[in-house]
Amino acid sequence: MNIQTAVQxxxxxxxxxxxxxxxxxxxxxxxxxIKKEKxxxxxxxxxxISNENLEYFDKLIQQRGKGEPVAYLIKKKYFWKxxxxxxxxxxxxxxxxxxxxxxxLKLTKNKDSLNLLDIGVGxxxxxxxxxxxxxxxxxxxxxxxxxxxxICKINGxxxxxxxxxxxxxxxxxxxxxxxxxxxxxxxxxxxKSKLKYLxxxxxxxxxxxxxxxxIEGLTExxxxxxxxxxxxxxxxxxxxxxxxxxxRKVKKILENKGFxxxxxxxxxxxxxxxxxxxxIK
Length: 281
Ligand SMILES: C[S@@+](CC[C@H](N)C(=O)[O-])C[C@H]1O[C@@H](n2cnc3c(N)ncnc32)[C@H](O)[C@@H]1O
Hints:
Helix content is 40%, strand content 20%. By secondary structure, it is of the alpha/beta class. It has a 7-stranded mixed sheet, with helices on both faces. Helix 2 (22-34) packs antiparallel against helix 4. The longest helix is centred in the first third of the chain and has 15 residues, at 51-65. The model has no long low-confidence stretch (mean pLDDT 96).
């Protein structure tokens, strides 16, 4: 069978399974199966595919048909300017989260050396992207999931920042290490009762502890703000990703803990996505 026939069959199958992007997914999974770039797949439709590669491709397509995200199937995801290793133990980095990197880079434009803390570091996509772009910054990442820290360590090594990265398995409630210049966090912020309405790709495959924000989605956010208020230096910034409808309540929690709200940033879909605050009291 040639690449074109295999890809077309896969597209039809994924369409039947109500997968939203059947064409793109089939091409990416073919490139994974034959270990070539996606461009090669598109430019070599008439090339024959070996039985072994076809078998692997079929397996990937079956898994995709069940909703398994492409990023987990190919074990990578591009975020900011970099390629991150991912598996089912980490949240797949989201393009909307890139607003955090943009803001940190703006805020620290004239800073030479800073100590950063990422609460709920996951794959490390936020912290490692910043360390890549700011060569004199040092980062600490904490997470309750040991398995996500294992992936973060791989990314730190692959992207050449491991010597400036410390990782700790800890709940934010139990982390009292030192004071940081800047804290970032993309905590789980989805309301527990709404988890069941998430897309199958998300709720069926991504780690629950990366999604479940408890009652009103504010349980982990509150913990992050409480912890940060102890861990941040005076006049240090806390940059927090939030859900589209949480701005008002999160602002209040921040203000009660001595943070001044500096800016609210919208994401690519124009939803409130990120709150930048400064510890003033
Ligand atoms: C939404 S994910 C974010 C992962 C990554 N920072 C990103 O932006 O893709 C939240 C992360 O916080 C971790 N986490 C959840 N509750 C935590 C807690 N109480 N203390 C520390 N980490 C926590 C989860 O294991 C998960 O890796």
